[in-house]
Amino acid sequence: MRGFKFILTFAATLGLVIALNTKIGLLPPLGKFLDPFQGFWQNAETDRGGETATLQLANLKATVSILYDDRQIPHIFAENDHDLYFSQGYVTAKDRLWQMEFQTHAAAGRLSEIVGERALEYDRFQRRIGMLSGARNTIKAMARDVVIREVILAYTAGVNTFIETLDPRDYPVEYKILDYAPEPWTPLKCALLLKYMAWMLTGYASDLQMSNTLARFGKEVVEDLFPYYPDNIQPVIPEGTPWNFKPLRVKKPERGFVAKITGKILPYEANPATGSNNWVVSGSKTASGFPILANDPHLEMNLPSIWYEMQLTSPSVNVYGVSLPGAPNIVIGFNEKIAWGVTNGEADVMDFYEITFKDSTLEEYRHDHKWRKIRKVVEEIRVKGAGTVLDTVIYTHHGPIPYINEKPFNRRVPVLHALRWLGHDPSNEARTFYELNYAENYGDYVEALSHYICPAQNFVFADANGDIAIWHNGRFPLRWHGQGKFIGDGSDPLYDWQGWVPHSQNPHIKNPARGFLSSANQNATDLTYPYYLNWYYAPHYRSSRINQRLMEMEEITPDDFRKLQLDTRNLFAESVLPALLSILNESSLSREESGMFQELSSWDFFNDADKIAPTIFKNWWGKLYDAIWADEFGGEGSYFRFPSRVRTVQMIVEEPNAHWFDNVKTTDVETLSDLALTSFNAAYSGLSESFGDMNESWQWGRYKGTDIIHLARIPGFGRMDLDVGGDLRIVNAIGKTHGPSWRMVVALGPEVKAWGIYPGGQSGNPGSPHYDDFVDDWVEGDLAELLFLKSADSEHRRIVSKLNLEVK
Amino acid sequence: MILAALLIFILSFIAEMFLPWWSIATVAFAVGFVKTATGWKSFWAGFLGVGFLWWMTSGTIHIRTNGILTSKVGEMLTLPLPILVILITGLVGGLVGGLAASSGFHLRAIVKK
């Protein structure tokens, strides 16, 4: 009896301890996690500040002093460059270790190691698009550059020195939730992070949808609905800028290739919410007489933020700005002499090729009238709790074949698609950022840009000498006009990329007569530029509004630029709403609908948080757009590209009798006016069903409810339902989940001054007051004055704490 | 029982400085073996000893940090009130401590016989 009681209680104790030490489903291992001595409680912090800490570290050459200001920005003062990048790695890891590792695991297709089988498909995808092999190519290129190799190694040593100091109780809380431990940092992870960014900004192609659209609707329709150069565009390099160079020749195939219609391969859709603004004005337009530069990259907004703000100082460099946790240097920022910012270039650097195999063994494929051998790469994906999964990826000389489960059209001649992406190539973007950090003038900036490959960006520039410039910069494949708009012929060498546009011939302009430059992801150049880069860019709404304002503005101050970043004028609505209201048959509206009509009629086209009209317009437009196109382009099993918003607006305003307005699925002939009315009715029903008749909850900011979610989507760890204006395609591009991830304004001059903010906080720890302490100010539209120190002045009134790293 | 609970409280506190969280089970088991009178008393000694240790520690951290992480974790665990995170913390620790202590007592009962 007594023995039985012992066995019972002992087994129960053991069972309970094991259960509480194990991660079950999405729940963390509860005993380990709730333990107040080593679990999540240990991650709860109070405000830092007022402290001076000294650490003795191996691998340092001299003492480094790190001053933290009242916004928790580290200002690193090192006596040599090795110690500088070592310290950058160290302090970044101190605040952001989990994020650094998670993002690079995500890039490498290693999430299954952390979360198990539910990430397997994602990981397989990452391997199949060649992320890991691209990063490996890149790390080789970095290693050949003696300067960058040392920078990366010092940064890596700094991160690892931090990791070594950690006891399990100190692990960032996400490790405790997901129940794993940090692994050593490696240079490959720096490369993976850069490829992750490249994928985010260039990892899309509509070749497949365009090919299907061409096969289904024919050349004429495609040329009409998907033009090479859109209406109303003001390109980044102003129209009429001469090209003073002799372009390289590109050979074009004589026969046009039409790819077979294919089922869904992969949704490589561009995310319209990813974009950015930047602009610069010369001293002729500013109150100070010196240039002012602004930049706000629009990315998915997460906690922890994609950006980490810092100042890096050594005897050879003094630079301030935002860095990407996991990569050395400052990516967007300024030093005493220059300032720079970036927007995505949107050039097409991802193409699909139709590959014809010899037989179903998929061992050989046709190219240039010969059979070429494929290369097989076996990817090992470790899955938590389920061993290792092997996945064989087939590579052609174009690149990998991401999807082989696609149903072949002809069993004897299987047709698959190979992916050519510039991200597969060796590259050394770190060199560009490194040189920009040290740059003193326009010449240094151009030299820095010459090393840059992918993702292509519009690099805006200003310096204290008064020069302003913009380069549409990256490596651009040499292609004939239109190449890559549709799926290419993988067997014809003339469809391969035939080389590169020489760097000096990349679109650029310095000191334009009009005194300002801007970019907002629109077309880089007009049609006179001798190379073909892409056919589809962001619509003109943001860029037109920015240029319109910059044209009008004089005696500009930095605060004027802050206001311009917050501008919510909706040029898209302005371009189409008057036409829609004029054709809407008012007499057939209900009383409630008439109220909506009034709201729209009196709207000033600003998407402010407290207005109702933006909500009505967005809903109406969404239903109308679907009503116009879904009958032809949508539906089950189809995979066509829908015509753009700009083209649709043009049709509504200029071609109101176009046959596209008729719903081909009905026997009646619908007109634009019919669609306008039914979609307006539908917008009313949709809104009133969700929120009741028109009331405060229809207000734009509340309706949109911007969410800044946790990077691993952990509930409770984000900032949800922020009541804030703006929208995609508006200068203040705050959408539901994407938006200005960093706002910066820099005033050049004898003493550079700068302002900035990002929707997050310096600490990556959800248990820190500095996890999200910038968010409220960001919502308000405030910018913080950035503290740019000339020396390690620890007595400065804004310095709140100090960390000394000493040689061990 | 009070003395045993106090012992478990103090020894668990010390053990947790150096050892993983499940060291509380070892401590409660040992104290249950050496220091308690009945099965139920040993359970309560373990439950209260570890439970109070975890309640007090988590409660102190909660107050000191204005509950900055308590509410987030509460939301993650889909609990209606953040304070329940503290309650559950103590309950989990207490349950492990209680079972371990009573198991220790029952072992002694065999050994003594």
In short:
The complex is a heterodimer of chains A (808) and B (113). Chain A is of the alpha+beta class and 808 residues long.
Characterise this structure.
The complex is a heterodimer of chains A (808) and B (113). In chain A, the strands form 6 sheets. Chain A has an 11-stranded mixed beta sheet with strand order 1-28-2-3-7-8-9-10-17-18-20, with helices on one face. In chain A, strands 4, 5, 21, 24, 25, 26 and 27 form a 7-stranded antiparallel beta sheet that branches. Chain A has a 3-stranded mixed beta sheet with strand order 6-22-23. In chain A, α3 crosses α9 (187-202) and α18 crosses α20 (672-691). By secondary structure, chain A is α+β, with helices and mostly antiparallel strands. Residues 407-413 of chain A have low confidence and may be disordered. Chain A is built from 22 helices and 28 strands. Chain B has 113 residues and is mainly alpha-helical. Chain B has one domain. Chain B contains 5 helices and no strands. Chain B has helices spanning 2-18, 23-35, 39-64, 70-76, 83-112. The mean pLDDT of chain B is 94. The chains are: A alpha+beta (808), B mainly alpha (113). Chains A and B meet through α1 and α2 of A and α3, α4 and α5 of B.
Helix share, percent of chain B: over 70%
- Strand proportion of chain B: under 5%
Task: Give the oligomeric state.
Answer: heterodimer
What proportion of the residues of chain A is helical, as a percent range?
25-40%
Note the overall shape of chain A.
globular
Classification by helices and strands of chain A = alpha+beta
Total DSSP E strands of chain B:
0
How big a fraction of the residues of chain A is strand?
A: 15-25%
Number of helical runs of chain B?
Answer: 5
Q: Total number of helical segments of chain A? A: 22
CATH class of the domain at 571-704 in chain A: Mainly Alpha
Uncertain segments of chain A are 407-413
Q: What's the CATH topology label of the domain at 571-704 in chain A?
A: Penicillin amidase (Acylase) alpha subunit, N-terminal domain
How widely separated are the two ends of chain B? 22 Å
**CATH architecture call of the domain at 571-704 in chain A:** Orthogonal Bundle
Distance between the termini of chain A: 62 Å
Count of domains of chain B: 1
Query: Based on CA inertia axes, which overall geometry of chain B fits?
Result: elongated
**Rg measurement of chain B, Å:** 15 Å
Considering residues with a beta carbon less than 8 A from a beta carbon on another chain, report the largest interface and each chain's count.
Answer: A-B, 40 and 43 residues
